[in-house]
Amino acid sequence: MYPTTQPDPVRLEIFKNLYQFIAEQMGIVLQNTATSVNIKERLDFSCAIFDSSGLLVANAPHIPVHLGSMSESVRSLINDKGNTIKPGNVYLSNNPYNGGTHLPDVTAITPVFLGSEGDKGEEGAFEVGGERITNTQCPIPIFFVASRGHQADIGGITPGSMPPHSTKVEEEGILFDNFLLVEEGNFQETALRHHLLNHTYPARNPDQNLADFKAQIAANERGVQELRKMVWQYGLDIVQAYMKFVQANAEEAVRRAIAVLKDGSFVYKIDNGAQIQVQVTIHPESRSATIDFTGTSRQLDSNFNAPKAVTQAAVLYVFRTLVDDNIPLNAGCLNPLEIIIPEGCMLNPTYPAAVVAGNVETSQTIVDALYGALGVMAASQGTMNNFTFGNEKYQYYETICGGSGAGIHFDGTDGVHSHMTNSRLTDPEVLETRYPVLLESFSIRADSGGKGQYSGGNGVIRRIRFLEPMTANILSGHRVVATFGLNGGEAGKVGHNWIQRQDGSKETLDSTAMVEMNVGDVFVIETPGGGGFGHPQAQKVI
What we know:
By secondary structure, this protein is an alpha+beta fold. The protein contains ten helices and 22 strands. A seven-stranded antiparallel beta sheet has the order 2-1-7-4-3-8-9, with helices on both faces. Strands 16-17-22-19-20 form a five-stranded antiparallel beta sheet, covered by helices on one side.
């Protein structure tokens, strides 16, 4: 029997890694069983485990914007469904106003109960506080597991469900608000298909949606099985106690990181003229911080509004990266932080504001603004360069890498996904096999990173030729406003979007655009470079 009042340092490390291992196993199952390019090849998904209150315990190293916001979705389910949550149920959620990010990111949530007749042991009996109890004696979930995957299409006004010019959330796709996907072990296919198709802008490929949802169910089931194994081996009270210890350990690590920071503020404009303003105030006596977004632009008519959960995820990510220790991203990291986000601003919009770009674009701006306020890192490319194309038969989505920002004693990196995204690009062979396009070239955009004592990373140039007529969309940023340098470092170069038509003419596009592509047309995306850090003439410190 292990003590549950104070953590043993060795066992703390063991349990921390066990929790992360479970989330990683979930991710492996999801990748192996999914059918869409988006999840199987690009790895645009995240898996995590949560305590009985819905607070994040541990995650696999997947997509930061997913991981920092999923807890809000789980807690929304607990508040909404309460005591009606039963063993064998699985729920779907993507509501941006209930913990979601944007509609293509759909979360499958599975409650974990003690067990049932037929499980290993005596009628599913577990040891709790030295006593053997069964599932019927403990009818509430003891944990939750969740997986969030980006659907290649979830309806909306454009193929790929990333419309550049949506003005309300309904135009971005189909909303799931704690939808009962599996009821006591029975997959609700009829109800699901009805929900996907009975919409003003229905899903274009419901079979693919169903296949990926089933993969998420399988991933969650792996998490359920692994958590139950832990409980069998160590006892429920020990497993739950070390969940709290892991969260407390993360909290202490963040407090230590905060203790060496200084107050700062930053204002960062985006291409459409809106701005994000943040003031970071450090409280040394409590080793805590207040992050105040007062002064940020009001809710926008465009889709660059970021749901509150996304804003919190960006803050969580930044402060986690300031910690040198190997800790999981979890709810403990948030405890030292007071986050003030005025209601009705673009970082805490009200329904039915459009939000599809808030998750992928505005989240990146929040991160860079925070690093700017803290003075630790120049801006990275600050965009995910969201590129979608398709028709009724094909739907494809990718995010494109660029330059990362330089910082204290390090250069930026060329051609890398940074900050709130962590997905891959589809292999050229897979892209060209599954879709009627040709990847003409994919190269580093030389000299696009900002110069400095430490230079920003370079962006990339990506050219895709279309072999069939299709609608293409670009949802991007920093085509007007350059990525900033710090401490005398130069700004990175802005990106460019343009079309090379079959007849040789060139068509320049804005940051956000929808365009009809004909056979032989080439869509060209030049991504931004990262900002430099320190004066270019200063000597590097080796």
